[in-house]
């Protein structure tokens, strides 16, 4: 959690995800295609590092990955990010 907390404090956009998750890939690709600079932190896959992901879920009270932070606030997951970008909000 300290790594995520520090990244959120030091960067405008942070994506916290896990390997092989298609929702994480969608968020990653949407940010990349929009030319938005972001930091990506990855915590294992479906069978590894589950304890770190569980701690993050409890800390943020957000149940799924990715977790998208913009301006030090958790805005939600992949669908929330796509809606945010579709509205034309500037990052």
Characterize the structure shown.
The protein is of the alpha+beta class. Helices cover 45% and strands 19% of the residues. It has a four-stranded mixed β-sheet with strand order 2-1-3-4, with helices on both faces. Helix 2 (22-33) runs parallel beside helix 4 (78-86). The radius of gyration is 12 Å and the shape is globular. The two termini are 24 Å apart.
If you compute it from the alpha carbons, what radius of gyration comes out, rounded to the nearest whole angstrom? 12 Å
Helical percentage: 40-55%
Whole-Å distance between the termini? 24 Å
Mean pLDDT, rounded to whole units? 94
Number of helices: 4
Order of helical and strand elements: HEHEHEEH
Strand order of the largest sheet: 2-1-3-4
How is the main sheet built?
A: 4 strands, mixed
Shape descriptor: globular
What fraction of the residues are assigned to beta strands by DSSP?
Answer: 15-25%
- For the secondary structure, the number of strands is 4
Secondary structure category: alpha+beta
Which residue ranges are poorly predicted, with pLDDT under 50 across at least 5 consecutive positions?
A: none
């Amino acid at each position: 959690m300290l790594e995520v907390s520090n990244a959120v404090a030091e960067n405008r956009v942070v994506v916290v995800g896990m390997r092989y998750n298609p929702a994480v890939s969608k968020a990653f690709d949407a940010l990349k295609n929009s030319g938005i600079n972001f930091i990506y932190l990855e915590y294992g896959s479906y069978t590894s590092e589950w304890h770190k992901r569980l701690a993050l879920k409890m800390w943020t009270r957000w149940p799924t990955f990715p977790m998208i932070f913009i301006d030090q606030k958790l805005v939600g997951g992949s669908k929330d990010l796509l809606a945010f970008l579709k509205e034309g909000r500037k990052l």
